[in-house]
Amino acid sequence: MSNEKHKASKSSSNRPGWSVTFRHPRRSDSRGRTGLKIRRGLGTTDGGEADRLVAQLNVLLNDERWWSADRRTEAKHHFDDIVVAAFFDGMETGKISASALRENKIPLPTKDDGYARVMLAGTTGAGKTTLLRHIIGSDHSQDRFPSTSTARTTTADIEIVTADGPFESVVTFMPEHEVRAHIDECLEEACLAAIQGQPDDKIAANLLSHREQRFRLFYLLGSWQESAKETDDFSIDDDKPEKDTISEQEIVSAAEATRNQARLIEFIGHIKTVARKVGDTTATHLGPLEDHDGPDNRTVWLELFSDELYEHEAFSKLALDIMDDVEDRFKLIRTGGFEQGSDGWPVVWSFMESSREKFLEQVRWFSSNHHKQFGRLLTPLVDGIRVRGPFEPLIKEMRVAPKLVLIDGEGIGHSAKSASSISTRVTRRFSEMDMILIVDNAEQPMQTAPLELLRSIGNSGHADKLAIAFTHFDLVKGQNFGNFQHKRAHVMNSVRDAVGTLKQSIGASVAAMIEKQIEEHAFFLGGLDREIQQLPQGFRDQMLNLLTVMQKAAEPSIPVDAAPVYSMEGLEIALRDAVEGFQNPWKGRLGIRYHDGITKEHWTRIKALTRRFANAWANEYDTLRPVADLVARLQESISRWLDSPAQWTRDPKDDEERNAALATVRKSVFTALHDLAENRLADAHRPNWRDAFDLSGKNAGHRRAEEIERIYEKAAPRISSAMSEPARSFLHSLHRLVRTAVENAGGQFRQSGG
Predict the structure, then answer these.
(1) Of the candidates 208, 226, 229, 225, the residue with the CA atom closest to the CA atom of residue 217
(2) Topology annotation, domain 119-160+405-555
């Protein structure tokens, strides 16, 4: 009997030749539901040959005995290779992580090799990537690597290994299913704009830039041009205009840009058509959108509209059309070598070149943000970039750090909202680093985001790795500043005041460690947008000091033989405070209950969060980071408890030795907490996250919030004198985690403890 749901059909697309389109019976779409719509080229322009291949695919689709990845080898004996690939690609499991793929190509050296690993972290726009350019000798106008801008630029980890020899690179990419999901979400936002009567430029803006601001389709498809002739009425002539030395080979030609614009116009037309058709369907259930005046009523209508979008064949076809165009951009890379995963999607690109200029010219296709390259850049698809080679400062006397591993990641945001906790993508790497360099703006030092970084670094036991580079120091001006020392004192006073506000949450001893570390490892830099030769000698001296301290971080640390001894008394109270500190702000974000300083999140953001948990793509969405929040609150409370051991195996000689011993214990606990929080919030409740994501219809947003609240209550139940059995089990799990982590770090417990 024919299976109409999964029946394959011959189709044509923007690509030459015939394609086959079908819904896969075992692969899931961006909503986590089986039936992913697939379109694959059949490699033929002959209609009869295409029909023959489609018939073969229908045999596979109509017989469930083939619906297993381990039947692929047998299928090769019965069906054409192109049919086998179309059906079985993407069914295999056990994929290697992107970081492991990079490690296989270019291993990161360690202290044993004499290398210091340095993480650059800081507020978006503070200048950490610009500083990195100086460290690796990257010319601002010629090299343009890594890319910089005043907004969020770095969205993938950039890992640089300084070493002799040729230049090598390995680039890893976002998985195909995540790219498709981002395209679906961009299309959804564009359709929402269209159904609400927004003009074409607004629809295009929603399509071309994901609301999370990490996936920018205009890098791949080209930017939207409202008219053939663009003018800029806001530019101001500068005595020193920025040089634009991009080569002709890197610029998207006028003809190609015109083709890209025509394609975008075509997409916008399809979006408006899809939105109108789905809007008519939604109106049959709830009436026209314009009849819904209140925000709650409009939310119900728009959420049902969004659900209906994904059921519409035209929406799926449009997503596949865009996906085809995106995938075609890989074909424009003529150098290096791509490796594909089991689904045929590129997972790795590697390249080696002795010429720095030629090397960076190719790497920039994966890292650039230059507007003249929009329409060809693969930057949004990149998961990570690792390069190795003779990267060194342009000035000879600054070449004092020949063995560095430099890690530059995404900025941590500006506001309190975006800095509620530091992403686990960042905090999981703390233990791998020898130095954590916070790059902060000296004009406005220690705002909310860098303070949250300090909190996380201190509570996790990594304060001894801390250093701060204050950028824009040349802009610290005022009649009250007579010299460098006055300006330095002004910035450091702001730092001391800021760290003082953390004492209550991190404890006096951790705050004192952070303050001492900053006092000894603070560097003041200015004019970083200029080439190094143009900087005043004072700033060059500061950078030289910074590089010297970076390399010194590779030196082995002296072990401490004094160890803390604990009893479990007081830990239960600390854990109770941590759980409440996690639960209560999330009730505010979900709109369950008012919480001071927390605003209710828009339903589209909450739904996007559930999508990522449901499909196991990520444990966060933009600034919504429940796993990171739980880790931060638990570590904060446990860190304060760890600060007061019952006794010591021997009395520490001084505060420095005491803090070093406690830091080792904090690090061990912090590492263990990541796995516990990930398991309890994500892995153990995957079906519940799917249920939350699948909710639709009237009051879906409120019901979704309630479902998430139930997940949090089960994952991190409240601890009290009248605990439920799940709460008691949770408490025992935390007791075991703390005991094991303390003992693994060399600490002890009294026999009567716990």
Answers:
(1) 208
(2) Rossmann fold (3.40.50)
